[in-house]
Design brief:
The complex is a heterohexamer, with 3 copies of chain A (about 80 residues) and 3 copies of chain D (about 425 residues).
Chain A (H helix, E strand, L loop, with lengths): L2 H41 L20 H6 L2 H7 L3
Chain D lengths: L1 H8 L2 H4 L2 H18 L5 H14 L10 H8 L2 H10 L7 H10 L1 H14 L6 H11 L2 H13 L3 H5 L3 H7 L2 H15 L7 H8 L6 H11 L4 H26 L2 H5 L10 H18 L4 H16 L3 H8 L1 H15 L4 H4 L2 H31 L18 H13 L6 H27 L1
Helix pairs in contact in D: 3-4, 4-21, 5-7, 5-8, 6-8, 9-21, 10-15, 10-19, 10-20, 10-21, 12-23, 12-25, 13-14, 13-23, 14-15, 15-16, 15-25, 16-23, 16-24, 18-19, 19-20, 20-21, 24-25
The structure holds sodium ion (3 copies).
Amino acid sequence: MHSSELISEGINLMLFGMGFVFVFLTLLVAVTSFMSATVNKLVKPAPEATNKPAPVSAPAAGNDELIAVMTAAVHKYRSGK
Amino acid sequence: MHSSELISEGINLMLFGMGFVFVFLTLLVAVTSFMSATVNKLVKPAPEATNKPAPVSAPAAGNDELIAVMTAAVHKYRSGK
Amino acid sequence: MHSSELISEGINLMLFGMGFVFVFLTLLVAVTSFMSATVNKLVKPAPEATNKPAPVSAPAAGNDELIAVMTAAVHKYRSGK
Amino acid sequence: MEQLLSLWQGSGLYNMGLGQLTMIFICLLLLYLAIVKNFEPLLLVPIGFGGLLANIPEAGLALSAAEQAIHFAKPEVLAAIAQAIDVNTTDPEALKHLVHEQGPSAYAAAQAVAQDAGYTNGMLYSFYSVAIGSTIAPLLIFMGVGAMTDFGPLLANPKTLFLGAAAQFGIFATVLGAVGMSALGIMDFSVEQAAAIGIIGGADGPTSIYVASLLAPELLGAIAVASYSYMALVPLIQPPIMRALTTPEERKIQMVQLRTVSKAEKVIFPISLLILVALLLPDAAPLLGMFCFGNLMKESGVVDRLSDTAQNALINIVTIFLGLSVGSKLVADKFLALETLGIMALGIVAFGIGTASGVLMAKIMNKVTKTPVNPLIGSAGVSAVPMAARVSNKLGLEYNPHNFLLMHAMGPNVAGVIGSAVAAGVMIKYLGG
Amino acid sequence: MEQLLSLWQGSGLYNMGLGQLTMIFICLLLLYLAIVKNFEPLLLVPIGFGGLLANIPEAGLALSAAEQAIHFAKPEVLAAIAQAIDVNTTDPEALKHLVHEQGPSAYAAAQAVAQDAGYTNGMLYSFYSVAIGSTIAPLLIFMGVGAMTDFGPLLANPKTLFLGAAAQFGIFATVLGAVGMSALGIMDFSVEQAAAIGIIGGADGPTSIYVASLLAPELLGAIAVASYSYMALVPLIQPPIMRALTTPEERKIQMVQLRTVSKAEKVIFPISLLILVALLLPDAAPLLGMFCFGNLMKESGVVDRLSDTAQNALINIVTIFLGLSVGSKLVADKFLALETLGIMALGIVAFGIGTASGVLMAKIMNKVTKTPVNPLIGSAGVSAVPMAARVSNKLGLEYNPHNFLLMHAMGPNVAGVIGSAVAAGVMIKYLGG
Amino acid sequence: MEQLLSLWQGSGLYNMGLGQLTMIFICLLLLYLAIVKNFEPLLLVPIGFGGLLANIPEAGLALSAAEQAIHFAKPEVLAAIAQAIDVNTTDPEALKHLVHEQGPSAYAAAQAVAQDAGYTNGMLYSFYSVAIGSTIAPLLIFMGVGAMTDFGPLLANPKTLFLGAAAQFGIFATVLGAVGMSALGIMDFSVEQAAAIGIIGGADGPTSIYVASLLAPELLGAIAVASYSYMALVPLIQPPIMRALTTPEERKIQMVQLRTVSKAEKVIFPISLLILVALLLPDAAPLLGMFCFGNLMKESGVVDRLSDTAQNALINIVTIFLGLSVGSKLVADKFLALETLGIMALGIVAFGIGTASGVLMAKIMNKVTKTPVNPLIGSAGVSAVPMAARVSNKLGLEYNPHNFLLMHAMGPNVAGVIGSAVAAGVMIKYLGG
Ligand code: NA
Ligand code: NA
Ligand code: NA
């Protein structure tokens, strides 16, 4: 490759590259801000509510003593711990 | 494959399959019951005796303080913890 | 291979092998002793000083409360724990 | 300028097809179900995310080098591939299928051509090859599940194995249903595909994936998704069926306390099971062998560090790759087909029939033997460990607040795992041999 | 006697070249820096040790079977290799290069010849092929880093993404510098090599390794060493630049307290980011996809056991193999070249320019928007997580003991990770496509 | 009906050979020894279970695709394989051996033919290829062992290295014994096989497996079983020899307290050892390199998370696969041979001679140097870490209740690991080069 070509390739890459990085991150700022605004409107206060889904939270839960009886390991695996 | 063949393949598979599953699990019931009976006759009471082979239990054990001195990690590995 | 050749191969292997093992470990004794002597001359007393490089010890350390604030996991990873 | 154009023409926005867009929404739905509704998140989070990755336009993460080369369709590469696999067409659509139909050697030759032309395997394709193509990932998951399984309740009451056997009827009835639909011309399933679909009724993720990878890899995505989704739905699917088939009196039946099981029995059981497999059904040996190995490691008590690793680090690592690999099969042209709807429909039928068969078998046992069996534990025979056993327990408590069925239901529950692995072995023997 | 002679002639002492000796000293220096000076020891200990192993004379641990066959140069094997790769020379020096230049099929043929002649792949060569040649290791590290990353500060103040964008100027300026040096005839870098070198300025080890493995594997050793060394030197490199470009008043600017970020935002963010990548830059999908996957596993809170494994067992295992594999590239004939000096020089320039750009961008933002931004957090945009953020914080405290910038600097810090992954995607698209 | 017959004819019961039955009993015996008698359970549980799996009739878990194709012996497939490996016979028995004797390329061709005919590699065969065929598993175990080893006692008293050297005489005497038996026509061992058998005397599992996989893979099963069994029997094998060769006075010798060893010495030692290996015996570099790497990770103190993983998750995962892979070599036609008896006999002789040499060397050292050495620690030079050191300690206490030899015996104990790795390197150099 001729040295002039090489330089022009480098300049091209710099322009495209920085341009794209800025476009991408600007869009990400927009998407993120929009997402945050929407989410915070919808989910409203209690940010900790979604925070900790009850460890088992399967529809069958509720009788906790029983669950404690269960094969601990399988249980642990299934419940995603 | 003709649709009649397909159906007959399906019926075959169902018959053989369910038949085999039942034969297998029936045999497993028999083997398990026999095994349990034999084991419980041989091993008799103390079910917890076999339960916990002393963690090291190598013939050389006995002088426990010394073992505690040993390179903890190698020891841990060898003793199967 | 003729049985005589086989035997002579075995004897060769034994002589070379044992010889080499002794040469190697003798050199290792020498190297180790020399290394220990040098190190102990240079490092001198406080053997525990080198022992525990402060877990983070990055030049930026010092403000420990702050570091505690940091994303614990990334921190843990980078600090080599 | 040229480069800008190429960037734009290489972007996802420019290349997004309707199928990919639909698949992305389906994958987002899976993630929603997994994260918010807690539908088997351990598998559905990686599967859903893998599906997202697989449907990124132009990234080709789920494609092999040869498939990428065919996708980009440079004439000279297509010609070289056609020559390598010894076919006469260079039409990309045709080659896409032909490249998989000429046998492993031809495929390897096509891969070599594509690699020489600069294409490489996509990330998810590599994961799939190593994790599922080799069948290793489901086997290791099964080993880990074995190391987590307690056969105590089953050993205390071996008759519950019959419940685990009966519940497998869901599998075979579904196979029949699938070939029936094909015979009627509604779907177009082969017997192999029908068998792989039926195994959904086994309510065992790794068994489903293992069988599908051997008999019908093209349906693996839909089968895995159906399998895990329905396992998560067990608390909704089973109760109505259980109520419909039992009388209030039956539901109140109290079962006799389970005897204590000795350590020795627990150690010998996985070995006995393996030997029975070895004698009767070698084709189930990989699956049940790894399961028994995991259980032996746990029960022997002398290799705790291996057993711990099998239950933790190893199964977790494998789950990540298995999930992403299954996700790689959620690509539009394979998933967005009428067959997927058929699979979803047949899958729920399989669960239902399995549940019913288990309950009915328990009622039959009550007629034949004197020790009472609460038919509510029959439904646990489909496996879906431990969800189905929990459902049995919950229903039992509703009708008799002192009747704790959980441990009794664990027997058929783990029996169901063995039962569907045996069913899988029969199918592989029958169809794959 | 003959055997004694062969033992001696096969020993390292007899065969040690000056290059290997030099490399051994360099690797000992790396180990010294890692162990005593705490320079990114997690990577530099395995890299340094791998380099020692790679330079053991005659062991050939870093060589493939074909390379070993060529090294030992039996005429009949050389001839067979030459035939296999279809070249006319049997000169070992020439074959050494030609065997890599005839494409993957030819290389596989040469490997087969060498294996038939009894040669095998060296241990480190195998590690490299599996870990880096497949690009899997850097991707898994990125997944683990994703599972350790908290996007909270970024979500609380998304504008800090601009700082992460600006700091990537270091990357592209360095690319220009590298091609400039080649144009001037000082070095001889191709555009691909220049791009791989530039990525050092991204201050992200796995990204550097990933890009180098795709665009310039022959420079991977030097690039990885430069990348990790300079990351360790961030506390020395950045402060003078930060001081030079800011006034004491600017350094005292206090930033408004960050708002609380809800769980839902944190869960949705990695998915949003992936979709943006999917739409705009599919070539960044493997890298950012795995990063987002790791983060989603962490934030979803339903697959903690997978997230834990990704952050611990898995990333540690991968780090060991990645490090040894990078070390395998520290062999004399690849590392002891003028290029390596060029890479080291360009790398530090890249860090410097990136730091400066970040700081200047923060000053521009201060002009444009009303919420104050302390320009000291701009330098964190180069990433080097979390070292650069810590440096920002430390400098901030020097000038205003009540001004804790750490959390504010974490925003640009993780933005820098995204930024350099995007830059990497652009380069792969532009040069690799 | 036909299918029923095929199920029966494909069952294990129908196909069980006497050899397989015998092997199943042997494997059950191994499991019994491991679980009930605590014989090195970490290895013998997976090995024993792997052996069970490998001997399931018709399952072919230990066979490659080509071996399975030859086993099932369809004439057209046999013909294609014969053509692929360029031989004139299609006799299955002959092909079984020939397919391995025509070199790697021919074998790959046979594999391709078998895969095109629908056969796949058995699960255990795949494990073996990846774990042992590549030599990676024993190397990673060695890395983990390195990360668990404390060289402190050795550094405090480097002369104990001579004890580790002397104990290797067991290895070489056994090699001579093995070739002697062949010369007398009792057995038929090649020199390579004799060397692999001798290494049993090194009392180091991974070293044995590594050497056997390189020099005599056909004997790997028997060698590994002998190696681990005798290591478990060290407390029975060594004491009589130790008593026979020492006087009560010698056994009472008290040794001087070991000096404290500084951290710096511990960090530099693995590097020194590696450099010595690099200079003198490159062929021992993979084995001792990984060992030193593990030790450096531990002692450097800056990469604790890598060192922890090497000692836990990673070594456990590798142990599972290594054990199952070794088990895959416990198939009847390879294990049920007179050679196995020879190996078992030679193995115990090797242990005995090694023990005796270590003790005698200690007595010689007592003659030559003034610092007293209790000859009971000489036996620890065979390695079998830490069992042999514990045996030394126990015997010492019997004769002098205040004489704690444990730490003194750890020196020769770890020296024995280095010694047998060096011996392994010499043999690989001498025979494999
Ligand atoms: Na089931
Ligand atoms: Na960056
Ligand atoms: Na030894």
